[in-house]
TrEMBL record:
<dbReference type="InterPro" id="IPR056761">
    <property type="entry name" value="Ufl1-like_C"/>
</dbReference>
<dbReference type="Pfam" id="PF09743">
    <property type="entry name" value="E3_UFM1_ligase"/>
</dbReference>
<comment type="similarity">
    <text>Belongs to the UFL1 family.</text>
</comment>
<feature type="coiled-coil region">
    <location>
        <begin position="533"/>
        <end position="567"/>
    </location>
</feature>
<feature type="domain" description="E3 UFM1-protein ligase 1-like N-terminal">
    <location>
        <begin position="4"/>
        <end position="288"/>
    </location>
</feature>
<dbReference type="InterPro" id="IPR056579">
    <property type="entry name" value="Ufl1_N"/>
</dbReference>
<dbReference type="Pfam" id="PF23659">
    <property type="entry name" value="UFL1"/>
</dbReference>
<keyword id="KW-0833">Ubl conjugation pathway</keyword>
<feature type="domain" description="E3 UFM1-protein ligase-like C-terminal">
    <location>
        <begin position="690"/>
        <end position="803"/>
    </location>
</feature>
<feature type="compositionally biased region" description="Polar residues">
    <location>
        <begin position="404"/>
        <end position="413"/>
    </location>
</feature>
<dbReference type="InterPro" id="IPR056580">
    <property type="entry name" value="Ufl1_dom"/>
</dbReference>
<feature type="region of interest" description="Disordered">
    <location>
        <begin position="399"/>
        <end position="488"/>
    </location>
</feature>
<dbReference type="Pfam" id="PF25041">
    <property type="entry name" value="UFL1_C"/>
</dbReference>
<dbReference type="Pfam" id="PF25870">
    <property type="entry name" value="WHD_UFL1_5th"/>
</dbReference>
<feature type="compositionally biased region" description="Basic and acidic residues">
    <location>
        <begin position="464"/>
        <end position="476"/>
    </location>
</feature>
<feature type="domain" description="E3 UFM1-protein ligase 1-like">
    <location>
        <begin position="547"/>
        <end position="685"/>
    </location>
</feature>
<keyword id="KW-0175">Coiled coil</keyword>
């Protein structure tokens, strides 16, 4: 067998040495290899080299890669591709298999590194450490062109063996260097006697080490100092406590700290938290509770139970004597108002007083005030509060006393005559003054009234009460605080009763004055409300009677006003005369009923507000000036006041539109609005009532004409009767409108009657002119002329009467 093998070797060697007579081209070789692969004679993968002239197997590629790694220790995959001559893709793939199968290799950033390489690097680092004592891992990583984490992970298992050093904070230190820095940390730490932050201690140590290493030295991280400090503390080479890793408290300071706390607390029976902070104790409450279980923590101080006993005895005396005490006045200055409040709640006497019938109250956190003391102050203030309420009510509602009904006219006015009663109703009627006088005398008011009343529904009074009740509820909420004393007034009265409280200051919102005022003012409001409720109940009947009387007054007056208004329609074409008639009616009849309504509403408002109002005579008419009407209207409430102001403006002629006379119409509208808002019901003048009133008015005028002795006043009454006869209207005309009124009758009268009226009116104007021009002196020659003119008028009076009484003589008999 061996001989045959040797023979084959010789033949193979011969065959190799024999030169081929036929040479294959590269293409033929490639085709041959492909044919062998197709025939599966070559059943493994072949890789082309970069030149394309050689084939290499994957196994051979792995072997060559492993050979290069063993030779160099650290080789780049790219360099392997260039060295072996195989495409980079195949080299990377086989390199990954090589690294995967060999745990001693690693593939990092395209480089294959063996453990032997790192061992040699570790030996070089150790040699450098012996020279410079410290090396930065970052510096090593920069030199080796790898990451710091990789260098650190490689060095950690070799520390103490190949590398005689200590790795801390990214730095490598030799044992000698570590021992030197440990001695520095130990010395610096033992020199501290007060709580300190170790971060502040490491800064000078860093500077010292930097100076020791020179310019070539690397800065030492705080973590290195901290690790050394922690090791020393664990080995009990230093005594103290470390909190949060950096706050160091030496044991000598802790002992002195506890001695100071014990000394202060034993001497004063309390200790402020501010003092604890100055001693360096941040969690003062926990520290004190653990050291003094019997103590009580407050907001700013920690107290001993003896402080509670001391304050309890003082407050108990104040409560028993119906007095007060400010606990801050007996407590040390370190106590705040919150502390005082908490310690008061711990006092047995205060707890008992608060529970048992509220014998005392705690106000402004630190004041203990007995209920008897508060009651004494309240009783004094309550009396003054009642006076304050009455004074405020009176000041806000000006009382307008009723004025007498004496006439201000310079010429005598008509008087009621011939009043007659009819069965079932009163048909008398008031006649307005109609005289021929200048403008400044047109302010005269009618002096007589005739009662005219139709039967009303029996439930009308109840309706009025219901409306008044509804309005009462709507303003009740507003009236509650209108006349209650403000906080400033209450505080001032408290100071008057207790002058000691004056130093607290009335502007301080936390003062005892403010708290007492807040306590007493609701009590005063309730007391005043009860008083006003009582007064209102007492005034309820009077208010009902007042509304009923007012309703009766307005029933007859407003019907008369509607009757007189209809006569104004006759003068719509004569604007100047119409303006005079409107103004006259507003100043006479309209003013009277408006004054009556405003006056009675003012009394009603006062009764609602609990103000005593004296009884006025019901038969006396109310006469008010313009300013008085405005004041009364403004003192009413809400919408009532607005509508009353509108009535006053209409009454004074401020509602005239340009070119259109709206005086009486505006007054009637505003009067109805105000009456409706007040809960009053106004009757509307219908045909039946108009005939009744007109008949009564005519009879009254006939009676006055029959008995009139003044030649001037007679003319106006005769003209009014003629208007009733001609137009069936009740005309109210002032002296300056008589001429125009007579001219409007020209078409309704015969020539003789019209001439008689014009002549009499001319003579009347002449007489008034002479009287106006007369000086009243003895030598004044106009007196004779006045007398003669008056005699002339008196002689014509029978003729004038005959114009209106001729048809009614049988009735007069």
């Amino acid at each position: 067998m061996d001989e045959e093998l040797l023979e084959l070797q010789r033949q193979f060697e011969f065959a190799q040495q024999v030169k081929s007579s036929v040479r294959l081209s590269d293409r033929n070789v490639v085709e041959l290899v492909q044919k062998l692969q197709e025939l599966r004679v070559i059943d493994f993968d072949l890789l082309h080299t970069v030149t394309g002239k050689e084939y290499i197997t994957q196994e051979q590629l792995k072997n060559e890669i492993a050979t290069e790694i063993c030779k160099l220790g650290r080789v780049s995959v790219i360099d392997l591709a260039d060295t072996i001559g195989v495409d980079l893709y195949h080299v990377e793939k086989q390199a990954q298999d090589v690294v995967l199968n060999d745990p001693g290799l690693m593939l990092v950033q395209g480089e294959i590194i063996s453990q032997s390489y790192w061992d040699s690097i570790a030996e070089e680092i150790n040699e450098r450490l012996q020279e410079c004592s410290q090396i930065s891992v970052a510096e090593l990583a920069g030199q080796l062109q790898v990451g710091s984490e990789l260098v650190q992970s490689v060095l950690e298992p070799r520390l103490g063996t190949l590398v005689k050093a200590r790795l801390e904070g990214g730095q490598l230190y030799t044992p000698a260097y570590v021992a030197r820095v440990t001695a520095m940390v130990r010395g610096a730490s033992r020199g501290i006697f007060v709580p300190s932050n170790l971060s502040a201690l490491w800064a000078p140590l860093q500077q010292l080490v930097q100076e020791m290493n020179g310019s070539s030295g690397v800065a030492v991280e705080n973590a290195f100092f901290q690790s050394i400090f922690n090791r020393l503390l664990k080995e009990e080479e230093m005594l103290g406590s470390l909190r949060a890793g950096t706050h160091w408290t030496p044991s000598v300071f802790a002992v002195a700290q506890k001695e100071c706390v014990d000394s202060f607390f034993s001497q004063n029976s309390y200790i402020p938290y501010e003092t604890m902070q100055k001693l360096g104790i941040s969690q003062a409450v926990q520290f004190l509770q653990s050291r003094y279980p019997d103590g009580k923590p407050l907001s700013a101080v920690f107290i001993h139970s003896s402080m509670i006993e001391m304050l309890d005895s003082t407050t108990e005396d104040a409560i028993e004597q119906n007095s007060w005490i400010d606990s801050l006045s007996v407590l040390p200055a370190s106590f705040t108002s919150q502390d005082a409040n908490k310690i008061l709640l711990l006092c047995p006497s205060v707890q008992s007083a608060l529970k048992v019938a509220e014998k005392a109250l705690i106000l402004a956190e630190s004041y203990v005030i007995s209920s008897g003391f508060i009651k004494g102050i309240y009783d004094q203030i309550e009396k003054e509060a009642e006076a304050f309420s009455i004074q405020a009510s009176t000041a806000s509602l000006i009382d307008h006393p009723s004025k007498s009904s004496e006439s201000q006219e310079s010429i005598p006015a008509n008087t009621d005559k011939g009043s007659k009663k009819k069965k079932g109703k009163s048909a008398s009627m008031k006649t307005a003054t109609v005289e021929t006088v200048p403008d400044d005398e047109e302010e005269a008011r009618p002096k007589s009234k005739r009662n005219q009343k139709k039967g009303r529904d029996s439930t009308s009074s109840q309706k009025l009460d219901a409306k008044a009740g509804g309005k009462k509820e709507s303003v009740k909420a507003q009236e509650g605080n209108n006349f209650t004393p403000p906080d400033g007034w209450v505080m001032k009265k408290i100071v008057d009763s207790v002058p000691e409280f004056e130093d607290e200051g009335m502007e301080n919102p936390d003062s005892i004055l403010k708290h007492l005022a807040d306590l007493m003012r609701p009590m005063l409001i309730n007391s005043l409300k009860e008083r006003r409720k009582k007064i209102f109940t007492e005034n309820a009947d009077r208010m009902k009677r007042l509304m009923d009387d007012l309703q009766k007054k307005l029933d007859e007056s407003f019907l008369n006003m509607q009757l007189y208004e209809k006569a104004l329609e006759l003068f719509e074409d004569d604007q100047s005369t119409s303006a005079v008639l409107h103004r006259h009616l507003l100043r006479t009849t309209a003013a009277t009923i408006a004054d009556t309504l405003l006056h009675d509403l003012d009394i009603l408002n006062k009764l609602k507000n609990g103000i005593e109002v004296g009884d006025s005579k019901a038969q006396d008419p109310v006469l008010l000036e313009s300013s008085e009407r405005m004041a009364l209207a403004k003192h009413l409430n809400g919408s009532l006041s607005r509508k009353a102001l509108a009535l006053v403006e209409a009454l004074e002629g401020k509602s005239y539109s340009v070119g259109i006379l709206m005086g009486v119409n505006a007054f009637m509208t505003t009067f109805r609005d105000l009456a409706e808002e007040s809960g009053l019901v106004l009757k509307k003048l219908d045909k039946k009532l108009e005939r009744t009133l007109l008949h009564a008015y005519r009879k009254d005028l006939i009676s006055q004409v029959s008995t009139e002795s003044d030649p001037v006043a007679l003319l106006a009454k005769v003209v009014s009767l003629l208007y009733i006869k001609a137009h069936n209207k009740a005309l109210q005309a002032p002296g300056r409108a008589i001429a125009a009124a007579i001219s409007h009758l020209k078409d309704k009268l015969d020539e003789s009657t019209y001439k008689t009226l014009t002549d009499y009116q001319t003579a009347t104007v002449t007489l008034l002119a002479l009287m106006s021009a007369s000086t009243g002196e003895e030598h004044d020659c106009s007196a004779d002329r006045i007398l003669s003119k008056r005699e002339l008028l008196k002689s014509q009076m029978p003729v004038l009467r005959s114009l209106v009484l001729g048809d009614s003589q049988p009735q007069q008999s």
